[in-house]
């Protein structure tokens, strides 16, 4: 997961994860946060990495770029490595200033 931490582009201003604290649909996201959050924050100290937990919600990731452009993706039933892959795809798919 440290590979993801080092590849976050400077155009990314915020990563926000929404997930449930107990549901099986969010298990991969919880594992990703536990294992990857420290390396993401140490490699990107100015990046806002927000974690939003709520009961019975579908796990999602939101990435905000320069100029307020934002993209999102579903993370339901994904493994920890699939969550990292989806986040990598999301942060690298955005053309700065042009919504997806």
UniProtKB/TrEMBL annotation:
Membrane topology annotation: Peripheral membrane protein
Primary localisation category: mitochondrion
InterPro entries, sorted: NADH_Ub_cplx-1_asu_su-2, Ribosomal_mL43/mS25/NADH_DH, Thioredoxin-like_sf
Pfam families noted in UniProt: L51_S25_CI-B8
Coiled-coil annotated spans: none
Keyword Mitochondrion: yes
SUPFAM superfamilies in the cross-refs: Thioredoxin-like
Limits of the Ribosomal protein/NADH dehydrogenase domain: 21-94
Swiss-Prot/TrEMBL keywords: Electron transport, Membrane, Mitochondrion, Mitochondrion inner membrane, Respiratory chain, Transport, Ubiquinone
Record's GO cellular component terms: mitochondrial inner membrane
Subcellular location: Mitochondrion inner membrane
Family that this chain belongs to: Belongs to the complex I NDUFA2 subunit family.
PANTHER family referenced in this protein's UniProt entry, alphabetically: NADH DEHYDROGENASE [UBIQUINONE] 1 ALPHA SUBCOMPLEX SUBUNIT 2, NADH-UBIQUINONE OXIDOREDUCTASE B8 SUBUNIT
Function of the protein: Accessory subunit of the mitochondrial membrane respiratory chain NADH dehydrogenase (Complex I), that is believed not to be involved in catalysis. Complex I functions in the transfer of electrons from NADH to the respiratory chain. The immediate electron acceptor for the enzyme is believed to be ubiquinone.
Protein name: NADH dehydrogenase (Ubiquinone) 1 alpha subcomplex 2
Source species: Kwoniella bestiolae CBS 10118
